[in-house]
């Protein structure tokens, strides 16, 4: 790993937006481990100060990680100061509110892409920009239908139509707004690339469900903490999505690292979905790991997502950039689930 040629030199500053998030915190830590410096863009640095403590503290003590406050996503010039002197940008920030009006979710996501890309254009130190998209930008990931073959030009355009359906805005809009925001934002990324002669390369990483070790108590709660839902028997969150794909958070973070550092990865849409799984698979692992705990019953007649996806490129990047010898691919579901539930933040 240490002998690999990198697009930017060790010691460079990396801007990570939404740095206190589950995935972004792992991305930040992996760059710190590799000898880079991280500028974490957050709304409220005081609420994200845990990024300067614990396992991050040795890096904070030498000035290798700093937190900067940025205004709401999509504000004009939001990132102009944050991008100063950075060699790479990883834009993970997204609108977390589940609200019915697409103008409150989709619109600021697209504006946020324009804001950070324009800031990168004006900062000549920037060599790489990586945008975190979503598997749902390429596919609806719906059980009971054929989700087709996922390729470079796969887009979940139907969810955009659902989000922007005529008001009054209701629950169907709210459920469509997050994936619609990812479709619209990623399309804006590629439109910006096509319309401009950029001095930096651009890549997109698209995870599905992300599981694994939380670095903060805040990462336990929330609608996307899939293993925690199964652990707690939260059927209201489980029932609408009986099957999906799940990747370990450290693996997905490593793919972001590769998307920045690998000189051969350019103009890439990296579909980083991980393992296809049904809730019954996750419940079986939980019962094995916690034999004395009672879990909800298995779902009858489990059906897996029908979709054709080639993750060869992802596996090769994991092998190439991992520090684990003889790595074969994604971290196993069992290992990810073990780290998800054996931490000081989960109780009960």
From TrEMBL:
The keyword Magnesium does not apply. The chain crosses the membrane at residues 12-32. InterPro entries: Epimerase_deHydtase, NAD(P)-bd_dom_sf, NAD(P)_dehydrat-like. One of its GO terms (molecular function) is oxidoreductase activity, acting on the CH-OH group of donors, NAD or NADP as acceptor. Residues 14-202 form the NAD-dependent epimerase/dehydratase domain. Belongs to the NAD(P)-dependent epimerase/dehydratase family. Dihydroflavonol-4-reductase subfamily. Pfam families: Epimerase. This is Aldehyde reductase 2. The lineage of its organism: Eukaryota, Fungi, Dikarya, Ascomycota, Pezizomycotina. It comes from the Eukaryota. The keyword Transmembrane applies. Keywords: Membrane, Oxidoreductase, Transmembrane, Transmembrane helix.
């Amino acid at each position: 790993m240490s002998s690999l040629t990198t697009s930017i030199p060790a010691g460079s500053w990396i801007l990570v937006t939404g740095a206190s998030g589950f995935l972004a915190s792992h991305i930040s830590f992996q760059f710190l481990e590799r000898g880079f410096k991280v500028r974490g863009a957050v709304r409220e640095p005081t609420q994200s100060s845990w990024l300067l403590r614990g396992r991050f503290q040795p890096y904070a003590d030498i000035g290798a990680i700093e937190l900067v406050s940025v205004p709401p996503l999509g504000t004009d010039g939001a990132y102009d100061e944050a991008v100063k002197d950075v060699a790479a940008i990883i834009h993970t920030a997204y609108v977390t509110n589940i609200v019915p009006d697409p103008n409150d979710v989709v619109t600021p996501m697209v504006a946020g892409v324009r804001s950070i890309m324009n800031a990168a254009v004006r900062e000549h130190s920037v060599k790489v920009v990586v945008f975190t998209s979503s598997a749902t930008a390429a596919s609806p990931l719906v059980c009971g239908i054929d989700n087709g073959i996922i390729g470079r030009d796969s887009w979940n355009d139907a969810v955009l139509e659902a989000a922007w359906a005529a008001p009054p805005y209701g629950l169907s809009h709210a459920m469509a707004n997050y994936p619609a925001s990812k479709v619209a934002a990623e399309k804006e990324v590629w439109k910006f690339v096509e319309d401009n002669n950029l001095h930096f390369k651009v890549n997109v990483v698209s995870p599905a469900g992300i599981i694994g070790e939380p670095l903060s108590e805040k990462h336990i709660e929330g609608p996307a903490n899939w293993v925690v839902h199964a652990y707690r028997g939260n059927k209201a969150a489980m029932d609408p999505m009986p099957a999906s794909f799940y990747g370990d958070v450290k693996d997905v973070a490593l793919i972001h690292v590769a998307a920045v550092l690998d000189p051969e990865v350019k103009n890439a849409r990296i579909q980083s979905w991980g393992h296809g799984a049904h809730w019954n698979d996750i419940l079986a692992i939980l019962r094995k790991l916690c034999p004395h705990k009672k879990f909800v019953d298995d779902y009858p007649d489990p059906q897996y997502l029908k979709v054709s996806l080639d993750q060869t490129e992802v596996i090769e990047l994991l092998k190439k950039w991992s520090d684990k010898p003889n790595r074969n691919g994604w971290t196993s579901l069992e290992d990810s689930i073990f780290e998800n539930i054996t931490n000081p933040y989960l109780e009960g």
